[in-house]
Amino acid sequence: MDAGQHADPHRPSIFRSLLSLLVMIALVVGLSWFLREFVIQPYEIPSGSMETTIMTGDKVFSERVTYYFRDIEPGDIVTFEDKEIPGRILIKRCIATEGQTVDLIDGRVYVDGVALDEPYTHGLPSDPFASTLVDISYPYTVPEGEIWVMGDNRTNSKDSRYFGSVKAKSVTGKGCFIYWPLESFGVLQ
């Protein structure tokens, strides 16, 4: 190139290319953060407390959008902050919400005096625990702003029978589907 000639004005400079790449990376990181904070969060299931609905080692997505538009409802599978171990997230089924009364009679769960039909427990008994983290007596009325949660595997789940009701504001999302392993892929119900 002669000293009098200039670079092709249509050819991007290295600086512009690097700047474009950095902006693209920042957008991807920002979008990923936004999705994890406000839309959907992946979790790996470490225990058998929700078997056979969710198996140990399954990977699930918990979405946050539903609870921007409606309250938590009985039957929802929810992820929430553990009361005992800060930073740990648990997954259980919501059985009752504020103001409802939970009772455990002869291995069955009653909410507001009505026995629940719970096919997801496969007939496992829902008995109170002899040793609990907090003092729980039945019938138990769920306090305002809280929910009562239980694992589907009733004989192998530390849940509200052990640690009491949980604050609705500690709920991080609604379990929506299993994404791994592929043979378990499907919507949670």
TrEMBL record:
Localization: Cell membrane; Membrane
Tree of life domain: Bacteria
All copies of domain Peptidase S26, residue ranges: 20-180
InterPro entries: LexA/Signal_pep-like_sf, Pept_S26A_signal_pept_1, Pept_S26A_signal_pept_1_CS, Peptidase_S26
Catalytic activity from the UniProt record: Cleavage of hydrophobic, N-terminal signal or leader sequences from secreted and periplasmic proteins
Keywords: Hydrolase, Membrane, Protease, Transmembrane, Transmembrane helix
Signal peptide: none
UniProt membrane topology term: Single-pass type II membrane protein
Keyword Secreted set for record: no
Transmembrane domains' residue ranges: 14-35
Listed EC numbers: 3.4.21.89
Keyword Membrane: yes
Pfam families membership: Peptidase_S26
PROSITE patterns, alphabetized: SPASE_I_3
Gene Ontology molecular function terms on file: signal peptidase activity
Family of the protein in this entry: Belongs to the peptidase S26 family.
NCBIfam families, A to Z: sigpep_I_bact
Protein name per the record: Signal peptidase I
Gene designation per UniProt: lepB
